[in-house]
Design brief:
heterotrimer; A mainly alpha; B alpha+beta; C mainly alpha; B: alpha+beta; Helix Hairpins; Immunoglobulin-like; Cytochrome Bc1 Complex, Chain D, domain 2; 3 domains; 5-stranded mixed beta sheet; 7 helices; 12 strands; 35% helix; elongated; C: mainly alpha; Cytochrome C Oxidase, Chain A; 17 helices; 65% helix
């Protein structure tokens, strides 16, 4: 992504971002970067939309099994995860705020908090998965949980693992992206003239959070 | 006229009521297509000549279409397309809605053959017998992967989906033999998954049905489009009958349902039998074979232990052939013993 | 380089930029190391590299096609066995669609022309552009590796449950397609942002060349539809390897759900393949009729209309899959709308020639073929959409003929037209016009001879993907194979004289067609950054051929 790449500056005023030769002005460059990121987020939404459609179809075909299976999920852990992600979105948004004000140290703090919360999310997910593996609530032919004897229950867990797995993958990618932006903030690169990378990274993180906000009710609440 | 159109367009003969509807819409669409393309093409070619370039840097007029012109460009095709949609959709609904008095036939696609069965009648492989001028509903499913049941002369087609039933119907208009082709790629021998629909006139149909009901083995519809696809058992069963007669099975076992010295063969295979020691088991190939080799081991309740062993007297293939023969001796009502989970289909509204 | 004085002398022409090209080498010679090409950020070099690779993939797909057609010469086995044949038609589809048709016009010509047409110096994200090329190549190599290791036999549509149970090499080929999907998304994203943010001052939306409108609509489809295919590919690969059971009835899954998800992408995908060709044709017909396009806004909006309505028509691939009649009705009528948008374009293209000044050069010859194939391919599409006609035709050779009419007849004619139209722009050389017309004639004739028999085969009831067929279909099959040989010969001839022109061709003028399209307002080949100094201004709309001394122009529709 052609985001503005600033020259690494020393302590003091953050440097001017480099304007790529093919853009008419810095403003156009930043606008292009944002538009590009919005389009990319649209593709991610469509990717997950497919999984939601699959869930809807099978829920329609096996309503009792899905309702019963969803009750097997640990609602406490799921709620904690939701709160954790929402808070991490808040810290990511704060990072953008601080970047505009050239407070690069706070940007680092905010993003580090975001990454830590993401790690917490993954740890909780790990416990949830471990429990399911222990119970035999696994996808497809590996399903051995005897607790529910309804047709279609294995399908629920298949969809559960696929959606949360794909989401967790995006969480990890998001963490890597934010870590990279954090490194740039450590080099004091951001100011009101140049905070595009922070904004874009934060936008991606908001998407990751948004997907979970839809996944959580779909899997845990209904 | 229709003959001419059919020949130009390479359409197969029309042998169903749906075929007429399809072909009529086809002629309509093709006529309009040819005429309009001719009009557009002629106009274009005329323009190419009339407006050819005369000097290298020739300037041209800036032409802007009026709203009326663009409206015409939109509305003319739209009118035709919507007309065709109305006709086509009406016909599509018609072919998706079987009439109330349609006769049911179950079709099962399986790699790489078609199996047919009637609710109260015989089974068949690759050949479907139907009466002319009577609506027939097909309830289609698949045993393994997707297939599609297509009869060009009837112009009907419906996918065979594993795990559910799909339905379509047709009314054949003239007796004859019409080819069935599988139209959904299903693996290695997809192109060999051919079959036949044999349409019989009313009298021929009655005669055939009577024949089917009389005796099972002698009159099985074993006519097959491709003999190499026949499961070997069909001929094994005949052989088994011969061997059974030769070694004297019929001295103690009947084939008409009456218990004699031993249990009857009719309906034996698949039956839930109670043994002398109280155990209940399902009669399968293993049990029948064991009964021939070691009759006293698991004796059916209510019968004396007088059956001789045939170990050493029957070869392996002969034993298997007898098993296959016994398997063909089913009661007229094929639903007996079938699981309560019958096919899932909607009764005709 | 020859001077562009001919343009300057024309009434109403755009004046040539002041700086002399001697100090600004053209993009082909600016950097001659391999690294300067492999790591280039210049959209023009990336476009040329795309062109080379997609032509190679077209050749591979064509070899598979010839293998299929040779096998079909006799009703029984001819040159290969059944499993090889099943793999051959599958690979023909996979290579042609994913490795050629989807990337070809956007990757090669979209990349090259879009910035030039917008007065921009490059696309919005040049590094992403290079990445999308390498994603295409990575995915292609993985898929080709899969092909060499046996190839899959499911048909390019890889319907479940067969595709999840077959023992052929499904995983690498589908995973390769997955990677290529990212290339497609990246290209689309780049083009959308470029169109929104990088137009030169004065180029408003309704002053953009129609090729840009077409590419924009294509890019929207690429960005929105491809992720769903990505998901489906992942799920099928996963199911093949780990047996999840999402689409397998034996494990509770639904094979028809697969079809819905698959066609949700694959139907808009056909518009990814055909919309760019519509854009090219708008440019070609305007240039070679030396006239403004008839109904500019109608053509521009119809591109968007096709892209939009195309998302809601996927169910017409599933009329006989056991879906409800309500379903069928909705999808049938929406498909008709797409047909209307295409009809608008056809009428407007013919209307462009009215009062024009036609110069019948090779690109225009391809336009003629394109027009004829679009009309018939499109009308047969509408015929399918009536639902009742689809019942006997579905999955027969009628479908094969229909989509080849559009994909080869319309899109590849447009690809050939682009190649010839923009050859002097991209390479500064000119090909031999006589040979151009000869090969156009051979290709158009060969195409008809190949695919008209296939319409008739479909009418007669021959299903697709048949290795052996009943004898009565043989005559038409032989005719089709003969046509295919002629078609291949036509392509071979163009390959020869175009390669010859590349090496030995005479130097072309900057604007040999005397076109007023915006991309012709630079030198040919253009300098590395397209424009020296700030972005140019174009006082008139593209393809404005009016004599300025004449009366003033009425407002455009």
């Amino acid at each position: 992504m052609q985001s503005s790449s600033a020259v690494a500056g020393t302590a003091g005023a953050p440097p001017l971002p480099k304007l790529a030769h093919h853009f008419a002005s810095l403003e156009v460059q930043n606008h292009a970067a944002r538009l590009g990121m919005w389009l990319f987020l649209a593709t991610e939404i469509l990717l997950f939309a497919g999984l939601f459609v699959i869930y809807a179809c099978y829920r329609f075909m096996f309503p009792e099994a899905f309702a019963e299976a969803s009750r097997q999920l640990d609602l406490t852990m799921g709620t904690i995860n939701t709160l954790v992600l929402i808070t991490s979105s808040f810290t990511a948004a704060m990072a953008v705020h601080y970047a505009k004000e050239a407070k690069n140290k706070q940007v680092v703090v905010m993003f580090v908090l975001t990454i830590l919360m993401a790690m917490g999310f993954l740890v909780i997910k790990y416990f949830e998965y471990a429990h399911k593996i222990h119970e035999g609530q696994l996808p497809g032919p590996h399903y051995t949980y005897p607790g529910i004897q309804l047709p279609g229950v294995a399908m629920y867990f298949t969809i559960y693992f696929l959606s949360t797995g794909l989401h967790a993958f995006h969480v990890i990618v998001g963490m890597i992206v934010l870590a990279w932006v954090t490194l740039k903030a450590m080099r004091n690169e951001f100011s009101y003239r140049n905070y595009t990378a922070v904004e874009l990274g934060s936008m991606y993180w908001h998407l990751v959070d948004l997907v979970w906000i839809f996944l959580f009710p779909m899997l845990y609440l209904i | 006229m229709n003959e001419l159109m059919n020949n130009i367009l390479f359409l197969p003969e029309r042998a169903s009521t749906f075929a007429e509807r399809v072909d009529n819409l086809h002629y309509f669409v093709i006529a309009v297509t040819m005429l309009s393309s001719l009009a557009v093409g002629t106009t274009a070619v005329y323009f190419f000549f009339r407006y050819r370039r005369r000097t290298p840097n020739q300037a041209t007029e800036y032409v802007v279409p009026s709203v009326k012109t663009e409206f015409l460009f939109v509305s003319l095709p739209l009118v035709f397309f919507l007309t065709w949609f109305v006709i086509g959709f009406r016909d599509f609904v018609w072919v998706s809605t079987p009439p109330k008095d349609a006769m049911d036939v179950y079709v099962m696609g399986k790699q790489w053959m078609w199996k047919f069965s009637y609710p109260e009648g015989p089974n068949g492989v690759n050949v479907l017998h139907v009466p002319a001028n009577r609506p027939v509903r097909l309830l289609i499913t698949s045993r393994d992967v997707l297939h599609s049941f297509f009869v060009p002369s009837f112009r009907i087609k419906m996918d065979a989906v594993p795990g559910r039933y799909t339905q379509t119907w047709f009314e054949a208009t003239k007796p004859g033999t019409y080819q069935i082709l599988c139209t959904e790629y299903c693996g290695l021998s997809h192109s060999k998954m051919l079959g036949e629909v044999v349409v019989l006139s009313a009298e021929q149909w009655d005669a055939w049905v009577k024949e089917q009901r009389q005796g099972y083995l002698a009159n099985r519809q074993d006519a097959l489009a491709d003999v190499s696809l026949v499961p070997h058992t069909a001929r094994m069963a005949e052989q088994g009958q011969k061997v059974a007669a030769e070694v004297g099975c019929f001295k103690c076992h009947t084939v008409n349902g009456e218990p004699h010295i031993g249990p009857t063969f009719l309906g034996l295979y698949g039956k839930q039998e109670t043994l002398q020691d109280g155990v209940s088991l399902r009669v399968d190939e293993a049990y029948i074979t064991q009964s021939m080799m070691d009759p006293g081991a698991h004796l059916t309740a209510g019968f004396p232990n007088v059956m001789p062993t045939f170990q050493g007297k029957l070869t392996g293939p002969q034993t298997a052939a007898i098993v296959e023969y016994i398997k063909t001796l089913r009661t007229p009502d094929i639903r007996t013993g079938a699981s309560s989970q019958g096919p899932v289909y909607e009764p005709i509204q | 380089m020859s001077p562009s004085s001919s343009i300057a002398a024309e009434p109403g022409a755009v004046p040539v930029p002041d700086e002399h090209h001697d100090h600004h080498p053209n993009y082909l010679v600016d950097g001659t190391t391999l690294k300067s090409w492999l790591l280039t950020l210049d959209h023009k070099r990336i476009g040329v590299m795309y062109l080379i690779w997609v032509l190679l993939f077209f050749f591979i797909g064509g070899i598979y096609a010839l293998i299929v057609r040779l096998e079909l010469l006799t009703p029984g086995p001819t040159i290969i066995d059944a499993m090889t044949y099943n793999r051959a038609f599958t690979m023909h589809g996979v290579v042609m669609i994913f490795l050629f048709m989807i990337p070809a016009i956007p990757g090669a010509f979209g990349n090259f022309m879009l910035p030039l047409m917008l007065g921009a110096k490059d696309v919005a994200f040049p590094k992403l552009n290079l990445l999308s090329l390498y994603l295409l190549l990575t995915g292609a190599f993985i898929a080709i590796w899969g092909m060499i290791n046996g190839g899959m036999d499911t048909g390019w549509t890889f319907y479940t449950p067969y595709s999840t149970h077959t023992t052929t090499t499904v995983a690498p080929i589908l995973f390769g397609a997955f990677i290529i999907g990212f290339s497609s998304i990246a290209t689309g994203l780049n083009f959308i942002v470029t169109t929104h943010t990088m137009r030169a001052p004065g180029i408003t939306w309704f002053k953009m060349p129609l090729f840009v409108w077409a590419m924009y609509a294509t890019a929207c489809i690429q960005v929105l539809a491809t992720p769903v295919l990505g998901l489906v590919l992942l799920l099928v690969v996963g199911e093949h390897l780990f047996h999840f059971g999402i689409f397998d009835p034996a494990l509770g899954g639904d094979p028809v759900l697969f079809q819905h998800l698959f066609w949700f992408y694959s139907h808009p995908a056909v518009y990814i393949m055909v919309l760019p060709s519509f854009g090219v044709m708008s440019e070609v017909v305007a240039t070679f009729s030396r006239k403004n396009i008839f109904g500019y806004r109608a053509v521009a909006f119809s591109s968007l209309g096709i892209a939009f309505v195309g998302f809601f028509a996927w169910g017409h691939h599933m009329f006989v899959s056991g879906q409800s009649t309500f379903n069928a009705g909705v999808f049938a009528v929406l498909t008709m709308l797409v047909g209307v948008f295409t009809a608008i374009k056809v009428f407007n293209w013919v209307g462009t020639v009215y009062k024009g000044a036609v110069d019948f050069k090779t690109p225009f010859a391809y336009f003629c073929g394109f027009l004829y194939f679009t009309v018939f391919g499109g009308m047969t599409g509408v015929a399918f959409a009536t639902a009742s006609l689809d019942v006997p035709w579905h999955d027969t050779y009628f479908v094969v003929a229909h989509f080849h009419f559009i994909m080869v007849g319309a899109t590849i004619m447009a690809f050939m037209a682009s190649l010839h139209y923009w050859f002097p722009k991209m390479f500064g050389k000119m090909y031999h016009e006589g040979w151009g017309l000869v090969s156009a004639a051979l290709i158009i004739l060969g195409f008809n001879a190949t695919f008209i028999p296939q319409f008739l085969l479909g009418n007669a009831g021959m299903p697709r993907r048949y290795y052996e067929y009943p004898e009565r279909f043989q005559a038409l099959n032989v005719a089709s194979t003969a046509g295919a040989s002629l078609l291949a010969f036509g392509f071979l001839i163009s390959a020869i004289y175009l390669t010859h022109a590349l090496v030995f061709g005479r130097r072309a003028a900057s604007n040999p067609w005397r076109s007023r399209g915006y991309e012709w307002m630079t030198e040919s080949p253009p300098p590395t950054h397209n424009f020296v100094g700030p972005q140019p201004t174009y006082p008139e709309e593209p393809h404005f051929y009016v004599d300025p001394k004449k009366a003033e122009v009425p407002d455009a529709v």
